[in-house]
Amino acid sequence: DAGVIQSPRHEVTEMGQEVTLRCKPISGHDYLFWYRQTMMRGLELLIYFNNNVPIDDSGMPEDRFSAKMPNASFSTLKIQPSEPRDSAVYFCASSWLPGTTDTQYFGPGTRLTVL
Amino acid sequence: AQKVTQAQTEISVVEKEDVTLDCVYETRDTTYYLFWYKQPPSGELVFLIRRNSFDEQNEISGRYSWNFQKSTSSFNFTITASQVVDSAVYFCALRPTSGTYKYIFGTGTRLKVLA
After folding, report:
1. Could you tell me if B35 lies within 8 Å of chain A, comparing CB atoms?
2. pLDDT of residue A100
3. Distance in angstroms (rounded) separating the CA atoms of residues B82 and B16
4. Across residues A16-27, what is the average pLDDT?
5. What average pLDDT does chain B have?
């Protein structure tokens, strides 16, 4: 079975440019999560969706960040304009939450470098 | 407060030694879930185990074992006869059942297994 798919795996961009990260969750999962990992702050939850609807975006750092989930098999995280402090690894995870089967499965991550 | 503490920042062992990674959590919830994830040098986050708060039975999977003790709010992870391939960062996570659906991650323990 395919796991969570993220693209691109690596992204290098210049400050001020728009960056779009993509995620395809595991088929049948109805929760999707975006995380950011840095050395200084560890793993931070940015936003999560349930049935394509954003439920909690309190972790989104500022208005430069936006996330969408137009359908059950695709989500994007956009940064516009990007800044060097956005450099991090961005993970997408998905899960299915009936009863006790709650487990988040993570994608391979996108390593973003903003110059 | 909801919190996960992994006090060991880095541990180094020689191959074939046993090693225990500590995880202490705080939550007011009576029902919650605990997880361990492995992040090898390649960067992905790999799910290892989920434990429900009402199930204090310890678990063994090959060389891995987990000791869950509600009395001390700990969920420790032991690797028996460590191998170089066990070298990774290991994260403990808590998911309370109150509030929104979030994982609270510890800061991780970097395990180095030397040949």
Report:
1. yes
2. 54
3. 5
4. 97
5. 93
d(CA A23, CA A9): 11
d(CA A28, CA A65): 27
Question: Whose structure tokens read 């690894």?
Answer: A89
Q: pLDDT tens-digit profile of A32-54?
A: 999 999 998 899 999 999 999 99
- Taking contacts as CB-CB distances below 8 angstroms, the residues of chain A near B43 are 89, 108-109, 111
Residue B19 has pLDDT above 70, yes or no: yes
Q: What is the mean pLDDT of chain A?
A: 93
The reply to whether residue B47 touches residue A45, judged by beta carbons under 8 angstroms, is no
- Closest chain A CA to residue B33: A102
Angle at the Cα of A42 (from A39 to A44), degrees rounded to 5?
135
User: What share of chain B has pLDDT > 90, as a percent?
Assistant: 77
How many other C-beta atoms are found inside a 10 Å radius of the C-beta of residue B60?
Answer: 10
B96 touches chain A (CB under 8 A): no
Q: Looking at beta carbons, which residues of chain A come within 8 Å of B95? A: 102
Helix (H, G, I), strand (E, B) or coil at B70: helix
Q: Which of B3, B36, B44 is the best residue to mutate to test the A interface, defined by the most A CB atoms within 10 Å of its own CB?
A: B44
Element (H, E) at B92: strand B88-96
